[in-house]
Amino acid sequence: MFCGKCGTKNADDATFCTGCGAKLNGMQVTKRDISVAVNTNDKNRKVGIIVVGVIAVIVIGLIIALFGGRSYKSTVNKFVNASMEADAKAIVSLIPDKVIDYIMDEEEYEDEDEMLDDLEEELRNQIDYIERYFGEDWKVSHEILSVEEVTGDDLDDLKDDYEDMDIKVSAAKTVEVQLTVKAGETESSNSMDVSVIKVGRSWYLDMESMGDIF
After folding, report:
1. Which pLDDT does position 67 carry in this prediction?
2. CA distances from 53 to 50, 58, 61, 63, 67 (A)
3. Three-class SS state of 49
4. Which of 157, 171, 179, 196 is most exposed, with the fewest beta carbons within 10 Å of its own?
5. CA dihedral of 99, 103, 109, 110, whole degrees rounded to 10
6. Secondary structure E strands in the chain
7. How many CB atoms lie within 10 A of CB 113?
8. Residue 167 — φ and ψ, nearest 5°?
């Protein structure tokens, strides 16, 4: 028989457990009983883990739904990286679709590919300028130095400008970014302002303030 207290196997006629000394009378537990108990506990444990996992997924989904969207830092970082890689498509993805439609109409582009080609050419020209000064073996890094909220009349004027494109702006920032280019022992730093607006839950490039990209 097995001890109901510690589970030690004992002789069938034993009175006391050889493992813990507990009295065995009335406490006999068969091997099957132990197996059933262990399997039940394992099953309950697995069910508990599954339930916790489901709850975690639901909570994460709610958080994303309520607070999701691209942050202004992410927008600025993506813009700087895309500019240094001449990735026109990545930059366009940081601009509201209705603004892209407006730009295409204003610049009389036949399609988006034509617009992307022009933007990529402009970006390549900037990179060529860097390479003429530093050579081909150069690296660039950046960091955000300061962030200024756009408020008052400036924000109201910005909202009015975007309302003409049927875009509702809820907030705006001007982000000062420092770019540092290194090539061997040569290093040069310069700062630039990146303007961003909040539309819905995400931040986008403020083309009203950065219209010279195109």
Report:
1. 54
2. 5, 9, 12, 15, 21
3. helix
4. 157
5. 30
6. 2-3, 28-29, 139-149, 171-183, 186-199, 202-205
7. 10
8. -120, 130
How far, CA to CA in Å, does 74 sit from each of 77, 110, 120? 5, 31, 21
Measured distance CA(139)–CA(180) in Å, rounded: 8
pLDDT of residue 63: 47
pTM value?
0.66
- Residue 14 is predicted with a pLDDT of 77
Q: Please, is 90 exposed, middle or buried when counting C-beta atoms within 10 Å of its C-beta (0-12, 13-18, 19+)?
A: middle
Token readout for 98 is 């209705």
* Run of H or E residues at 131: helix 112-134
Contact partners, residue 159, CB within 8 Å, separation at least 6: 168, 169
At 24 the three-state DSSP class reads coil
pLDDT at residue 61, as a whole number: 44
pLDDT at 53: 62
Per-residue pLDDT, 62: 47
Q: pLDDT under 50 in the chain at which residues?
A: 27, 29, 57, 61-66
Contacts of 31 (CB under 8 A, 6+ apart): 2
Cβ count within 10 A of residue 72: 20
What does the alpha-carbon distance between residue 38 and residue 8 come to, in Å, rounded to a whole number? 15
